[in-house]
Design brief:
heterodimer, A: alpha/beta, eleven-stranded mixed sheet, two-stranded antiparallel ribbon, 15 strands, 32% helix, B: alpha/beta, Rossmann fold, 22 helices, elongated
Chain lengths: 329, 517
Amino acid sequence: MRRVDECLYQLVLRTRRQRLFLRSWRKGLELAPVTRPARREGVLAFACLRNEARRLPDFLDHYRRLGVAQFFVVDNGSTDGAAELLAAQPDVAMWRTSGSYRRSRYGMDWLAALKRRHGCGRWCLTVDADELLVYPDWETRPLPALCAWLDARGLRSFPALLLDLYGGPGAAGPEGRILEQVPWFDAGNYRAQRDPRYGHDWIQGGPRERAFFAGEPWQAPALNKVPLVRWKFGQTYVSSTHHLLPRGLNQRREEAPTGVLLHTKFLPGFAARAEEEAARQEHYGDCVEYRAYLARALRPGALHGPGSLRFAGWRQLEALGLMSRGVWI
Amino acid sequence: MTAGCVMLCHGGLDRAEQVARHICAQGTPLALHVDSGTPVSRRRLAELAAIPGLVLAGRRRSRWGGWELVEASLGGALALLSRHPQLTHVCLISGSCLPLRPMAELDRFLAEHPGRDFIESVRIRQADWVVSGLQEERFRLRFPFRFREQRRLFDLATRVQRMLPEQWQRALPAGLDPCLGSQWWCLSRRTLEAILSDPGLTRSARYFRRVWIPDEAFFQSMARRHGRDVVSRTLTFAPFDRTGRPVTFYDDHAAELRGIGPDYFFVRKVWEGADRLYAERLGKLPAPVPSRRDGARRIAARAAVPQPLTPAIPRRGEPPGTVPYLALFGAGPLFPGLPRILRDAGRGPWIDTAFGPAARLNPAAHLANLLRDHRGMPVLSFGADSPPEAAWSVALDPLARIIAVEGGWVLPLAGGAGAEAQGEEFARLRRAEGRIFAALDGGDRRAALRRWTLEEALAAPDEIAEALGLPPDSLAVPQAAQMAEFLERMRDDGLNPSLSLGRGGAGARLPRGLAAR
């Protein structure tokens, strides 16, 4: 009976995957190309954004340093000059759309369409504009080195923890570098458990749960992500970049390294942004997250607490045990 | 000039060419084999062939673990030996190797050891060399499928052959002593010529062609047969990690590579984007100053240490402790001054396990988060209404020492007022405690458990003090009379206290889980 159940469940998952995959074809029609990709080899980065002009210079800087060869960006109606900034970059291919972010599964359908067109057979990094990927020794081992290592082991995905950063004492003002504006993070209030549906580690905790979801912690945002995947025709992200189908891509192997996505969501001025996003109603779960932010009026530095640590580089994160190098010595 | 090099190259031709030019420029002849599966233009090959001192070996499709690798090495060695009669040794390196020292030092070293073969060669009958994979079966089974590309068929074929009778397996050729070792060797001219002129070479070749990963076996076995002075180590520093895969070197290994001892002349394998390592080793940067001489040991240590998997993200179902700790069930409420007493005695730190909503979602992770970063012997104090899963995860933790007092939670209740509310609370806590003790008594417990009933605890508090590492008489006996009276009142109110202090409780039944004790 269990075998039968498993087979049936596999069928369910396959159907789900195919439905999401077909959906991305339909949603891909909403994209209008602005600039074309210059290169198709190397590691490709995919992002969907709206009004992120503040973060973009640091975002592009960081990922260029990590060895991303080509960016594929969907601009969902920016009005703050982000589109112009992106169009002027030689290594950014841009698409524009005015479609609904929510009905494109928070940008995932658009990016799935781009990955299907441009990413098959390549290592594809799918990140938001407020996520900066780091992993052990990333300065001397950029993404091509990591991907070559994963390839040699037959590994096809690279998991990362989404680490929320926030302001606090000594944070720089809006004119500073992004990571200096939000230099604090929670070191040790995370918890993980296996999610039997997709076989990934479901991680929750951190400052967002502590501050906004203390009463209903099961609603707190998931912090597990799989940002880097060797893309194959037919693969699809299920919920944001938290997990994928087929399920094997979510599995974390003991010998494989893991990374951290530095999440710079809470830049100074986040309250205004939260208000706007809550009004737009384009975010996950009826904007439950943004309504929670509004309900507990978010002052700058309000997330800082006794358990906060100041971010000091990847060595600190590795020593704390928030990421691991596995056997990638 | 005493040494020549055979270089096997797959991808990364640019880097291989840099290294080849560097070696040839020092007067060391080099035979370069480029895998015929690697796309190279004719012009590029002509450019390579024009490098003085370099000879291109006939190209073959040399996949990982294929016999063609051995053929390519033999072909390269033959080309070098016939062209350069003064050569005494040939080293086999790969396109992703880097020289650690000038070639003149290698020449000098080999001149000091004429006729000696440097090849790691382990007799498989006597030792384990393989980290994960087949060892003796490499020589006895047949491998019609490729390991990397046809893994499932490979595994299936291996499993099937294991089930078949042993006489159906391949017979070893007479006189062959099967040996295994690292592919990267440095053999003397005499040994190589003996191998090449062996009348049984065709037969051996036919046999080894079907051995799994023959490049780790052919030369290693043949050198044992023909070599007169075999030193079982390589001149190439090529460490493996604990999964048995080769370590890749990056720019951050520069300091350790500077500290590699004088016995090694090459390092494998270097990531082709490691600009600084290449610049440093190929003389584009000022010559590196050798640092401490224990680089090899430091890398070996890094390779051997099992890296913990993100301990800051504790997982449900995993034991919470990283250091030994005490877990108190019921003792906290029973001795209200305990945190202060422990602190004064230099024990602790005292950690109150307040289970909020988030903590209840994953109690084991909550405990792990509480226990992290504490020096000394942390003391976790549990209340009666802690989730049973927490007790279960502590019971499974071999680092935990559990001190449990059944009914310790009665004391704070006995002091209060309001019979109706107290009755309900009493019943609730009693049930919760029953579940906790059932978890502690589970058959798969790995923690050390000491438990007392309320009566025993009140009669001999010194036993608990001793278990806590406190001097005798340090735990004050709480108000036993008040508690006995309270329990009696509970019983008279119609609740089943099933706790007794010697006077009442006759006929009281223990809840399930407690009864088993």
